[in-house]
């Protein structure tokens, strides 16, 4: 399928993630990039699947907390257990806006959601949070006088500048009323050696996203200052309210992903 703005020779983080999850919407360049990722980070496939499971648990927790509106930024390619499916199964009135700027993601998402009036897709870029929040699909579908769940899952590590990442979170928090929640998952480097870390940065530097960076718990905690961090805090995603069949919690020396959910008081 030929899409305007899509160069199949340039890998995309969304399509690499789709490949790691066992999906089918990727090009040869994405598969080659994913193989290189797995060389540097052998547990990358496990982390991708654990991140998807964290998404489901976080969305259910937000529905239980009374949230009926979701803004999923950097949504990626549709797969099993998408946000709208999890939320609407628990509460059919739930409304979801998926945001992405990858043309392949947008085409697939619109096709999947054509018959779901509670869910829309907004083409927007997280790097311009003000424009994102004012996008017509966002403003037309969500009521910001009521609680909203903002999902920033595996997206902020593609914003390498710390000040820019903090600014993005602050801007996205700004319109949220009491009872809203912010859910974040973000990669951490563990004890990845300098050579391997540089290889990972160089690899993602060739993707549409252009960069990737790991951060510490302290970095992430600063984004949530003033919010009420839900138990169990900032933890490996496998350990965030695990279910009976949860994955083992990984050694923090390995590259992994932290997860967290916080409430607007």
From TrEMBL:
InterPro entries: SAM-dependent_MTases_sf, SAM_dep_MeTrfase_SAV2177_type. Pfam families: Methyltransf_19. Keywords: Methyltransferase, Transferase. One of its GO terms (molecular function) is methyltransferase activity. GO terms for biological process: methylation. This is SAM-dependent methyltransferase. It comes from Nonomuraea zeae.
